Amino acid sequence: MSMVPHGGDLAAAEARWGRPAEGWLDLSTGINPVPYPVPPIGPAAWHRLPQHDRLQALLKTARACYGTPADAPVVAAPGTQILIQLLPRLRPGARVAILGPTYGEHAACWAAEGATVATVGLLEQAAEADVVVLVNPNNPDGCVVGAGRLPALADRLAARGGLLVVDEAFAEVKPWASVASEAGRPGLLILRSFGKFFGLAGIRLGFAIGAATEIERLARWLGPWAVPGPAIETGIAALSDQDWQDQARTRLSDDAARLTALLLAHGFTDRGGTDLFRLVEHPEAARIWDRLGRAGILVRPFPDRPRLLRFGLPGDDAGFARLAAALG
């Protein structure tokens, strides 16, 4: 079990505050609260082993959706978390610089495999590292490293056998920040998450895109049938539905602005985020977190930075009203 704290743990919330009569309003994750409508899935996807031709169709659809070259090496996995856990095997014993603070699993997974891990505030501080890891846009503050800076960094790392890992878990809401068009370049490995933007975290689907050497090794470690048939079919449908994606980006942008305005009106200071979550600061954040929990609203605290809270988006007007009433 991971020891890194995460959002979405309603069992732990109920153990602390009890089960709310109105049910939980879970704002503790960065998952789209209005999910992609899962299409009808034929019986074969459930009772047959995942088919190679359908997996290849998924990879082709992912390349088109993410804007990679048509021949870019890609591997699908049951979520990006398993890929994050496998990455240290690509460069055992490496000196790793992680641009942070950021998603805690990156540092934890590299350290667990014996890497020397340092968190740096600037890419320039990673000059001596063998591996550089950044989340772009970053979680939880939404900071973006300009995509134009990253290919040259990947080239410098590749020249000495290193690796640049770019976790683009939230790039769907800032597609201009992606370096997917550079996929296949030696020294560059990109992670893409399916569940967050499409609101289907339970599907457990993610992708690694990179040079053939790394992608072939990851595919070998994942083994056959890593992604189940229903996830393959859902991924093909969602990744090819450009109209839904465009509409979702518009709605998420509007709702993120609405959430920011609500939080500012209640005394929070905006500290960034993306259109899937907002990071805010308040001198009494711990008290507010507890008060919201007692009201059945779960948000994300940061024990090491106790003045910060992260709010995901309410999915509808009723959710916004409930949050406003609890804050009020």
From TrEMBL:
One of its GO terms (biological process) is cobalamin biosynthetic process. Its cofactor is pyridoxal 5'-phosphate. GO terms for molecular function: pyridoxal phosphate binding; threonine-phosphate decarboxylase activity. Pfam families: Aminotran_1_2. It catalyses: O-phospho-L-threonine + H(+) = (R)-1-aminopropan-2-yl phosphate + CO2. Pathway: Cofactor biosynthesis; adenosylcobalamin biosynthesis. PROSITE patterns: AA_TRANSFER_CLASS_1. It is an enzyme of class 4 (lyase). Keywords: Cobalamin biosynthesis, Lyase, Pyridoxal phosphate. Its EC number is 4.1.1.81. Decarboxylates L-threonine-O-3-phosphate to yield (R)-1-amino-2-propanol O-2-phosphate, the precursor for the linkage between the nucleotide loop and the corrin ring in cobalamin. PANTHER family: HISTIDINOL-PHOSPHATE AMINOTRANSFERASE-RELATED, THREONINE-PHOSPHATE DECARBOXYLASE. This is threonine-phosphate decarboxylase. The lineage of its organism: Bacteria, Pseudomonadati, Pseudomonadota, Alphaproteobacteria, Rhodospirillales.
